[in-house]
Specification:
The protein is α/β, with parallel strands linked by helices. Helix content is 46%, strand content 14%.
Length: 652
């Protein structure tokens, strides 16, 4: 540092200053040294700044003093920037103090030199940045004027537009889908119930239950269209219908994305827009619940949706808003756009009507979700409904149906969607055969042979395998069960033989029928003894649920009892009657569930009569066309309704 300062001082003195310095007295040398230091400070700070600093540090008077000691005190105040220094140095201390000041001034001068060099570099960089920014702005202006298109992008656009002009076909589902509520087959009660809940001044959230292919999605869409035309509903003309499959919605624990509720894209890892990423601003992305604002959010297979996502959806249903959070968001950041600030502070609106559809049982749905929703049950389609759907579809595609075609299709499916698919396949096969025969311009007729060919190639089986019969049989009866909102008949048979040794009889039932059926068997055995006085330990009785169907409830108890009595007493049972009900050990018939579905199953199998527990009378619709509905409260009443009368005819 001293070498640096000496160099500056030599530059400020004449060339013979060193020789002259040797001839001067000590006091004169100190005065020259002090003057040199002032000259260096003047070079570092400049004259004006030096005077300003001296004024602030109360050193101007000391600088003008004739005494070297006071000038040194002025230097100390300036160099150390300390106005409290007020002790005038002793002349004997001046050499040491001046050496210290030389070091300090040398540091100031060196630092100033480095700062000047850095400043020049900064100026150079700033100029380069300014030039780059100017060029970028210029290119942006040119791009805005010319547009984003290039010859390459224009070629890609032309290629995409050419693809839009090509179309192979419309799907059968799209062509044959009902366009009005009046065209929906077999769901009059469900449609009225859904209209009452949605097309209202106070629309409710709804869950639709029912088997697949009965029109839940179509009805939900058409109900919203109907509600838009009603003046008392809150739905506007542009109310959206947002449809999503619940099986595809999954909750992301990282909160990176959430297509249902929305998420926040951070500027670093998830790529907010470029202008936001450069300023470190997170960007909220709204989800389907906001897209459905003011309309309907339809979630198909809502029972398959992620349970955690269902829980988060409940919060949105309550608040009617979606909130966003991010550790990157700073409400005081001036770079945050107003719409992002509004989303973070107020959330996004999500006031919609939720309509969920499921093929699951109500017990399988989140109880908290069920409590917030009304429930509508869609009915399984009857053979008559399937036949009507097939005839309507044939009219739309301009095909003629041969006699019996719709009845064949109704035997192989209970789904409207599947029935339309079979018809469309048969229609395509008919067109192919007509083209081969050179009869493209002739009307197309769909024959039974074509339908059977489609059924065989698709490996379909008849939906109803057990049919009613006019002939009474001993030890054989039809019970009723429910699976997936669809009822069906259960064929139960029993055989009974006197035991080889009295008191050592065996009571059996197939294990695949389930533990509940075994309980029903033991209850029935107790009732047999109570009613007939027969001790079953004197009999070998084997009960079989044909097909090994598993019965999860006690509703087969009455049927099992009647099959056992028939086998033991040799009394024939009508084969056009189906029965359901839990049997108590006192001989009563208790209520069971799934009554409507069980009546449907009996009708599907061609039963003329269905026997239900008296306690279920309130669960039966007022009019059930096509089948006689009877009620029984005791085993004796059920026997009179099921057992064949003498001569082979059923009892009335």
């Amino acid at each position: 540092m001293k070498e640096f300062l000496d160099k500056l001082m030599r530059g400020a003195q004449p060339e013979d200053a060193e020789a002259l310095n040797q001839r001067l007295s000590a006091e004169e040398r100190q005065a020259r040294q002090v003057g040199a230091l002032f000259n260096v400070l003047m070079g570092v700070w400049g004259p004006e700044r030096l005077v300003v600093k001296a004024g602030k540090l109360d050193a101007l008077g000391l600088m003008k003093s004739e005494k070297v000691e006071e000038q040194v005190l002025a230097l100390q105040r300036l160099v150390y920037e300390d106005p409290t220094l007020d002790t005038v140095p002793d002349p004997r201390e001046l050499p040491e103090i001046l050496d210290q000041l030389e070091d300090a001034v040398a540091d100031l001068a060196a630092r100033r030199t480095v700062e000047d060099r850095i400043e020049r570099k900064i100026q150079t960089r700033m100029q380069e940045r300014q030039d780059d920014y100017y060029r970028e702005i210029k290119q942006q202006v040119l791009k805005e004027e010319a547009g984003p298109e290039t010859s390459s992008t224009m070629k890609r656009l032309e290629w995409l537009e050419s693809l839009e002009k090509k179309s192979l076909h419309r799907s059968a589902a799209e062509l044959l889908r009902p366009r009005a509520l009046e065209e929906v087959v077999g769901q009059d009660r469900a449609i009225q119930a859904l209209l009452a809940k949605v097309a209202s001044p106070f629309p409710q959230h709804v869950i639709l239950y029912g088997p697949p292919g009965v029109g839940k999605t179509t009805v939900a869409r058409l109900v919203l269209e109907k509600a838009k035309t009603m003046p008392h509903t809150p739905f506007a003309e542009d109310a959206p219908f947002v449809e999503v499959d619940g099986t595809t919605l999954r909750w992301d624990p990282r909160e990176v994305t959430n297509p249902l509720l929305g998420s926040v894209h951070d500027p670093i890892y998830q790529g907010a827009r470029r202008d936001l990423a450069e300023s470190g601003v997170p960007e909220p992305r709204t989800g389907l619940v906001t897209d459905a604002h003011g309309g309907v959010l339809f979630i198909d297979e809502i029972g398959e949706m992620d349970p955690l996502l269902q829980t988060k959806l409940l919060k949105v249903l309550e608040d009617k808003r979606v909130t966003f959070e991010s550790s990157y968001y700073d409400e005081n950041d001036p770079n945050v756009p107003k719409y992002i600030k509004k989303l973070f502070e107020e959330g996004a609106p999500a006031d919609f009507v939720l309509i969920g559809a499921t093929t699951r049982d109500p017990e399988d749905i989140n109880p908290a979700l069920r409590s917030r929703c009304a429930e509508v049950f869609f009915e399984p389609l009857t053979p008559e409904d399937i036949a009507l759907i097939v005839r309507q579809a044939a009219e739309r595609i301009g095909a003629h149906l041969a006699a019996g075609v719709e009845a064949i299709i109704a035997d192989y499916t209970i789904e409207g969607r599947k029935a339309v698919g079979i018809l469309a396949d048969a229609y395509g096969l008919a067109l192919y055969r007509a083209a081969e025969a050179g009869k493209e311009n002739e009307p197309i007729t769909i024959t039974q042979e074509l339908v059977y060919e489609v059924i065989q190639s698709s490996r379909l089986s008849p939906y109803v395998t057990r049919k009613a019969s006019p002939t009474a049989e001993v030890g054989r009866i039809f019970g009723l069960g429910v699976l997936g909102f669809v009822g069906s008949v259960l064929e139960i048979e029993a055989v009974a033989f006197p035991a080889r040794e009295p008191g050592k009889g065996v009571l059996r039932i197939n294990d695949t029928a389930g533990s509940m059926t075994k309980d029903s068997l033991f209850n029935a055995a107790a009732v047999v003894r109570r009613v007939t006085g027969e001790d079953l330990s004197n009999w070998d009785v084997h009960v079989n649920v044909i097909g090994g169907g598993r019965i999860d409830g006690p509703s087969a108890g009455t049927a099992i009892y009647l099959a056992m009595i028939s086998a033991m007493q040799g009394r024939p049972i009508r084969q056009d009657v189906a029965i359901t009900g839990e049997v108590s050990i006192r001989g009563g018939i208790r209520a069971v569930g799934g009554i409507y579905e069980k009546i449907y199953g009996a009708k599907q199998a061609g039963m003329a009569r269905v026997v239900l527990p008296e306690e279920n009378r309130k669960d039966v619709p007022q009019q059930v066309p096509g089948i006689e509905v009877c009620f029984a409260s005791t085993i004796e009443e059920a026997m009179r309704l099921v057992m064949a009368a003498p001569g082979g005819e059923g009892a009335s």
